[in-house]
UniProtKB/TrEMBL annotation:
CDD domains: ACT_RelA-SpoT (cd04876), HDc (cd00077), NT_Rel-Spo_like (cd05399), TGS_RSH (cd01668). It comes from the Bacteria. Its EC number is 2.7.6.5. It is an enzyme of class 2 (transferase). Residues 625-697 form the ACT domain. This is GTP pyrophosphokinase rsh.
Amino acid sequence: MLRQYELVERVKEYAPQADEALLNRAYVYTVQKHGTQKRASGDPYFSHPVEVAGLMTELKLDQQTIITALLHDTVEDTLATIEEIEKLFGPDVARLVDGVTKLSKIEVMTENERAAENLRKFLLAMSEDLRVLLVKLADRLHNMRTLHYIKKEDKRRRIARETMDIYAPLAERVGMYEYMREMQMLAFEQLEPEGYATITGRLAQIRSQEGGQVDAIALSIKQVLAEAGLNVEVSGREKHPYSIWRKMAERHVTFEQITDIMAFRVLTDNVEECYKALGVLHTAWQMIPGRFKDYISTPKSNGYQSLHTALIFERSMRMEVQIRTREMHSTNEFGLAAHWAYKQGGARPDGQVGWLRDLIEIVDASHDAEELLENTKMAIYQDRIFAFTPKGALFQLPKGSTAVDFAYAVHTNLGNATVGVKINGRHMPLRTRLANGDVVEIIKTPNSEPQLSWLGFVVTGKARASIRRAVRAKERAEVAEIGAKLLDEIAGRLPGRIGKKAIDAAIQRLDMRDEEDFMFAIGSARLTDRQVMEALVPGSTADLGDEPEWTHTERAISIRGLTPGMGFELADCCHPVPGDRIVGLRRPDHKVEVHTIDCLTLANGVDADWLDLSWGERTTGAVGRLQLVLYNRPGTLAEVTQILASNRANVTNLQMVQRDEPFGTYEVDLEVGDLAHLTRIVGALRASEAVAEAQRL
């Protein structure tokens, strides 16, 4: 553990103007506050914040960050308060400490909810000042270094999984590769102990058999480049065990089949020498096709720059080579930490880098703990592809991203308005996966809305969160519209005319936010008719006795203008279409379920609120289901599809459900305009020689 004077000396080495007295006061404060607290290792607890502060000095960060590292656990684990820290160390330090502090004292939350709330607060604080992230990453790194002292295996695995899923990818996104690699290694050891032991054992075996082979290859590379007039530094290393494990899993290969377990790094003086070195190496040894990447001309989103290539050395040995300038190397190893080494003038750089803005948008859009954790993990994983707008703007996206992901990456409003896409000048489906270098032109219309089905293929956290938020808003608006229609029916049973004043009073009595909240509660059956009546006119339900709770509508409630799947759902059992006589089943916190009046499953809805519904004037469009018994002979399906096409019916699903020679029984889902349209289709099918039987299900 660093002693007090050692920590201060480290800071003074790179920041001579640092306030020595303030640093000493922070060191003493954390020692006093943590007092006799012990870590799982048996060490005094204050050794942890001191070591975290030491990690911050290695990054040459300003004194406010060092003090934050020293104090980062005091509010969570001692009686210290943010107000006290602000008084002793200033508002900036207090703000940073508050950003790092967890919310673990909220006992009522589940484990996932606590994790999500901690992450939510952390991301919001990080958006204001990246030093919060740097302290948090150092805090997690030191905790991982001492994780083996925790006795409970399930706790070790939970912390390791959180590190692998959240903090290692975050370190990668800000370019702190040293932190990322060590976190992954330590987490891998806990999560896959057998895999870790096997791979480290094999690496040790190779090392003992081949002696100084890595050094010998590094020397060969340096000699080849020196002969070309390049003064470079060359270093080599084995890939770390987790990297090998992940490659084995991705490629479905054994350890023996991994041929490029060695990686070499070439450091040059300038960019021109990087490309010259690349040419020399490709001339000296055979390049492996498809393995070259130029991150100098197209840097990663975290600022990482380097040339990556793979070569075949002697005896068919494969090796990876990274070529970069010395300045790039310094930035690459510690990423944003190099940029956020704050000057002593107190200047604060803008923490709102692009990917961070996306994370904050995800925080705002996510509905619950599970959704936040899922979307955040999507947003921070790093395997990327590069795609362009027609004007040449470059966007980095995760592998597997679709046109919809691209639209949301450009802007949330563009994603919401998307209706189509051209990829490299060709019209393509929205679910098309993008490839490196694709030019993507998004087609939009002002009145379009995100579709729930998009959630089935988007991969980015930002797209998923934005779609869910838009769908929830539309769903809420449509349920509220149903609620407003129901309110008219309920109000009709009350004495006198119900106006705005009575509704406002009811909202207050029910302790609701606004009128939309009130209508939504009615539409989603969170309020019974009696509760609504009593809120509108207190005492009005006294004479109702044991009258059933469900709504007695004197006229059918129209669902015209509402979207299936939003405010209501068309039942799968009877597939109602416009023109059918329909009723609705309404249960608390469920969408209204629409059935035909003669549906056999309506008997199961005895516990639901029954609504008399109508389609409304000029309502068109729904999916009807038919059962067809066809003769089992060549051409029958073609004849049936021809009949459907000539009657302008779109087939959404076709399935054979039974085969009894010489017949085949099929179920067909059709998009039709209304009941008359469906009836015409059934008549045309029954007239066909190919169809033995046709009936609606």
